[in-house]
Amino acid sequence: MHNITPYSSPHYFIYLFVLLLPIIIGLLYGKRFRIYDFFATVLILVITFFGGDARQGISLIFYVLFEMIVVFTYKHYRKNHNNFWVFTSAVVLAIIPLVFVKLDPLLKNATISLFAFMGISYLTFKAVEIIMELRDGTIKEIKPTEFVRFLLFFPTISSGPIDRFRRFQKDVLKVPSREKYLELLHTGTNRLMLGLVYKFILGYFFGTLLLPKVSILALSYGEQAPLGISWALVAYMYTYSMYLFFDFAGYSLFAVAISNFMGVETPMNFRQPFKSVNIKDFWNRWHITLSFWFRDFIYMRLIFLMMKKKWIKNRVTMANLGYVTLFLIMGFWHGETWYYIVYGIFHACAMITNDAWLRFKKKHRQQIPSNKFTKALAIFITFNVVCFSFLIFSGFLNTLWFG
Fold first, then answer.
1. Higher pLDDT among residues 366 and 14, named by residue
2. What is the rounded distance in angstroms from the CA atom of residue 342 to the CA atom of residue 228?
3. Theoretical Cys-Cys bridge with 222: which of 191, 228, 232, 349, CB 3.0 to 4.6 Å?
4. Is it the case that residue 107 has pLDDT exceeding 70?
5. Residue 264 in contact with residue 23, Cβ under 8 Å?
6. Which residues cross the membrane (predicted)?
7. How many whole angstroms from its chain centre is CA 264?
8. Cα–Cα distance between 239 and 206 in angstroms, integer?
9. pLDDT tier at 50 (50, 70, 90 boundaries)?
10. How many CA atoms lie within 13 A of 303 on its CB side?
11. Residue 234 CA: distances (Å) to CA of 98, 164, 209, 313, 388
């Protein structure tokens, strides 16, 4: 048997629903079978990480042990001390495995990624969140079993959504009422069905049937037009954007649906992002748990540090520097290639431009109309700006220009 990527094949769904059935029956009758939950989690992790190739599974085990040492060493230290540099060292240690994995393709060194396994980014976000909230005092206590359960919650393990520890704990420590759980089952079923449509019908149409053909057509214009810019490239931009959304949103819907079946209200990751009226609104709707994680644990903390240290007095300059830092980190997180970094810079510039426009609009609100037409125009402009950023993100321009 080969390792099975979550939500990628009928076999995975069959294994999943067989294992979920006792959990569903238990919750319907007001019971959480915690020993069985552990058993089901282990089996799903074995299917995912210990199939034909166990290297990912072994890496996962070493990773979890490493993060436990870092988190609980810092937890013990934090009881009586709160030194900034010790806290920073704990955060750096927590992200080192992810840094190794991200550097592996750049250095082309197969030995560096000891911790290479599917989903390491999302587990790292969870571990870092716990360290940061231990420092803030918002997490007072956490047991090793709670840490492992939070980290290895299998519906979201490979690609999120990224839950928060305290919110997650509230769900897993209680049993929802029968009425509440029936509502979760209904909502989860709807999300599961929508996920099937998104990922296996629309995602398949745009990504498997349409994208390769549009890609070949766009590449055929590579030497015929300046920089290969053609209507076929525009078609690729829109096709890839649709594929990226439906594939990822479909996966996220599966993760949230399975969480609901387990009595856990994992937060949604997408909220009609192509209806955004500006780029800030887009990041409040697209990959929500990731963008909010970066906002809360990087952007806001950087702004607070700059204010506390009085490095910069001008609030606009401070916000702009925060955007550049935030989106550069997000770009590097996706990978160390030029198009991911440019993607990050592009969105930082878009956020800075958007803020400047909103300030201008506020000063001249009497002269600038606001109606259904201007809202539709704002949605149209935002949609195209976002799709262009996805063209950069796709790496297709790298193939077109340098391939």
1. 14
2. 19
3. 228
4. no
5. no
6. 12-30, 35-52, 58-77, 84-100, 106-125, 243-263, 316-333, 339-357, 377-397
7. 18
8. 6
9. confident
10. 17
11. 34, 38, 17, 42, 9
Residues with Cβ within 8 Å of residue 298, at least 6 apart in sequence: 325, 326, 329
- Contact 391/236 with Cβ under 8 angstroms? yes
Confidence class of residue 112 from pLDDT cuts 50, 70 and 90?
Answer: very low
Choose, from 76, 81, 334, 347, the residue flagged as catalytic: 334
Task: Output the six-digit token pair for 255.
Answer: 């993760």
**Is this structure's pTM higher than 0.90?**
yes
pLDDT given for residue 105 in this prediction: 62
Q: For residues 96 and 7, what is the distance between their CA atoms, to the nearest angstrom?
A: 28
Amino acid residing at 147: F
- Which band of pLDDT confidence, cut at 50, 70 and 90, is reported for residue 175? very high
Amino acid at 227: L
- Report how far residue 275's alpha carbon sits from residue 382's, in angstroms, rounded to the nearest whole number: 9
Q: Band the pLDDT of 114: cuts 50, 70, 90.
A: low
Q: CA 304: distance to chain centroid?
A: 24
Report residue 129 as tokens. 């969140």
User: What average pLDDT does the segment 222-245 reach?
Assistant: 91
d(CA 162, CA 293): 8
Tell me phi and psi for residue 175, to 5 degrees: -110, 120
Separation between Cα atoms, residue 2 and residue 47, nearest integer Å:
8
Q: Is the pLDDT of residue 267 over 80?
A: yes
Whole-number Å distance between alpha carbons of 251 and 200: 10
Asked if residues 299 and 400 have their Cβ atoms less than 8 Å apart, the reply is no
Nearest to 48 by CA among 185, 152, 197, 173: 152
364 is catalytic: no
For residue 232 the two structure tokens come to: 């076929």
349 or 367, greater pLDDT: 349
Contact 355, 316 (CB under 8 A): yes
- Contact between 396 and 221 under an 8 Å Cβ cutoff? The reply is no
**Two structure tokens written together for 131:** 């360290």
CA-nearest of 340, 303, 357 to 325 is 303
